[in-house]
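If you are new to this repository, start here. Below is one unmodified record pulled from the training split, so you can see the exact layout before writing a loader.
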Amino acid sequence: MTTIRELLNTPVAGDYDLVVAGAGPAGFAAAFTAGRLGARVLLVEQAGAVGGIATSGLMSHWTGDTEGPLYEEILRRSSVPGPEENGAWRQVINAEKLKLLLLEMLSEVKVDVLLYSFAAAPWLEGTQVCGLIVESKSGRRAYRARVVIDATGDGDIAVRAGASFSLGREPDGGMQPVTLMFKIAGVDMERAVFPGAFEDNREIPKGRIQDLGKAALSAPAGHVLLYRSSLPGIVTVNMTNMIGIDGTQPTDLGRGDLACRRQMGPIVDFLRATVPGYEHCFVSSAAALLGVRETRHIRGGYTLSAEDIVEARRFDDWIVTRASFNFDIHNLSGSGLDKDGAQQQFRAKGKYTIPYRCFVPEGVEGLLVAGRCISGTHKAHSSYRVMPICVNMGQGVGTAAVTAGRAGVLPRHVNVAAVQASLAEQGVRL
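And here is the target side for that same chain:
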């Protein structure tokens, strides 16, 4: 590739205890937690909203039965009245309500937020990250920080700082397919069905619903996942599907977005013709953010495994507790559940912890990672990548960043017992 040499003088626009790149559930939680602990925090997000897939991605609900005090606070403050006040209804997401709530929560703890701003590169001095370089309509700016947290989902900042990583599945680099979530209106909610898992192949008048979807929809689409929303007559659809997409490549992201948008019309036609209650449905909105499930796994001091999850391991250096979800591996070669996934057949000995070592990239100082890019295997990732667990990750690394900054040590050398004590004061239970 031909290159050009640039000589840049980048203005330093701020000095913070913590700068967080990416405002999805993990990044939001890290920034909010650190701000609540009294740190000076900057949160940088390329979209026009905080929340990532939960908001810009139009995700239907918070999945699983993970527990955590910040996660519980988000549910309590964002939930809408419903028939299951203490059950699954609390986990339904109203994206517009959540966008406002998350911004208000950040304001409450005095976190500075830069929306429409791209986390372009780490500010490096040798192998130590000393801040973040940001590109926006104002131009290129640098922000100094005692600690930087990479919550970009793809580990962009960690990789540009020199962290090592693997891409996707261990044998071949294959990555889970991408999805563009969308909502449909005009649904008769009294008659509608809501299959919420690949293994939910319920009978409807014309046959078994997953079998009908696979027969009617062109590959790689074919599964039927439909979820109640908090609004009357509106259902969230998780049925677009594109395989072979590398979410670290913009050309692939564009190709995936186009393919998923083209699938929306045939999906609506299928629902109208086949599924009770959906005879008059139509597309009301589509996500602004393509749902990328898997890309880089940043190598840390420990790689979380599927066995750790099944065995419900309790690590001495935990900073995430009470995590719980199945192996939600979407088929890497088509629709439905991958051969290595397990939803209704998933079995574990309890809820699991994630050790601090998974969040500290090898070979890079001053940086922590949070979200789906932490150090773990392809199969383990399919469990910990979900949003409630990412909230718990953010709370853990946000606390670790503040603890390290106040002690004047690099994050790698933080006293994990002190981090755990702070988390316990916040209500985190082992």
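Two things worth knowing about this chain: DSSP finds ten helices and 17 strands in the chain. The two ends are 50 Å apart (CA to CA).
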